[in-house]
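Request: Not sure, any thoughts?
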Amino acid sequence: MMVPVSANATLGHGTFYGDYRERRQVGDLAIADLRPTVPEHDVETHTHDDAHFLLLLDGLYLSSAKGMPAVCNTRALVLNPPGTKHRDCFRGLDGRFFTLSIPAHLWRSAADQRALPEHALQLSPSGLVQATGLWRELRGWDSASPLVIEDGVEALLDAATLMQRVMHRDGPAWLERAREQLEDDWEHTPRLSALACNADVHPVYFSRAFRRRFGCSPGEYLRHCRMERAIGLLHDPHMGLAQVAVACGFVDQSHFTHAFRRHYRCTPAQYRALA
């Protein structure tokens, strides 16, 4: 099914400019696998009633979402809150994308529980892996898939919340410096006492403030940074899994595979095959 194009259109639930190769409804959620059908010059500025995640699988994609390049040619995940005005489109029609649509009332309910973003943005590599898993679920649908999709949406919303917290730098400067240290120097594991000393606060206060601000402990955030780095390296076909494991601080490939599967419910090799 192809959706007609009109200027300043508002697209309804689960509706996109594309050819629906496969689609499912899970309660109020809509998921779909699509290919673009509208040339770049024919796409007008439009909005969506829903919030939606869009996973770029193949092709050249143009998006105004924060963090996206001018033209994206690699796998990427974009979040658009309800009512986002944009002119996102493909350059050419040789593309493929997966969408997950969340009605506005569910988005508002989720926003009551989390600090969700109010503007379009590109999600981190962790969100990218989670969305890829949901696309895989759509392709291999079975009776348990609806529960997997619902749980996966919660994980994506958590990923968006963490991105919002990291990008919205309204906390104490010392806390932001500590987070940047963990992110920039992810190869090394600092002591909690050293982080607290650099911030000139007590370790107990530091740990509590970090959890309150970022929703996880400093150690959990460091693991998150290492996993994000590993996901990026998995996109390099010239690096073996053992090399990726060592480069990101894991004891060996087995340790890396176990940690990856625990986080994302698939192995690094399975993700690489999909990517």
